[in-house]
């Protein structure tokens, strides 16, 4: 579904290189977790895939269903079925969840040749999705994230994901700032959305969300590259030992020998 090939990325404003040759393949029906210390490039990777204009791809390619998406704007990528849940969801006062999501749903449906929903049809459809995140029906009448608690904002991201039904979702630290009950609710929603026809990529610092979502693949990013990949056991080892055992072998060699 998604193939990232030798991806090098710098910050558009000052040219600072963030990603230094990322390679990653994501297939339908898979759940991937991307872990790593602060500043390793995890969030940058998710933003670049989604089409954030603050970054410049200097080398490599991103293929979605076999076609390069580098020249596509963020909204065009969303129309194809790409979704990004934000680490820090923004507030949009005056725009209700219902209006925003119905417009987004119908725009994507039109692009993909699916049936559009009228206001009453959409309201019924959206209320079904609310059950995934244990929110009351009046939630869809509220302005997007305005006055929401941190947990409500993160649940709203998963609600949007459920409504829009993307082919591949990047969840940028959706677990950060959640108490244990909210974490379980968010994880349960993700588990119910994930199926054989889509893919989920979770960007996270911590192993704790993986207690509730079992990833097929775990990748560790160090200094803009994927330093190691494995299964859930790798995440457990990281929780126990941290990242030092991966960072140290990646340091510069001295006299031709690794430190």
UniProtKB/TrEMBL annotation:
GO terms for molecular function: ATP binding; ATP hydrolysis activity. The keyword Transferase does not apply. Residues 2-248 form the ABC transporter domain. Keywords: ATP-binding, Nucleotide-binding. The keyword Cell membrane does not apply. It comes from the Bacteria. Pfam families: ABC_tran. Belongs to the ABC transporter superfamily. Ycf16 family. This is Fe-S cluster assembly ATPase SufC.
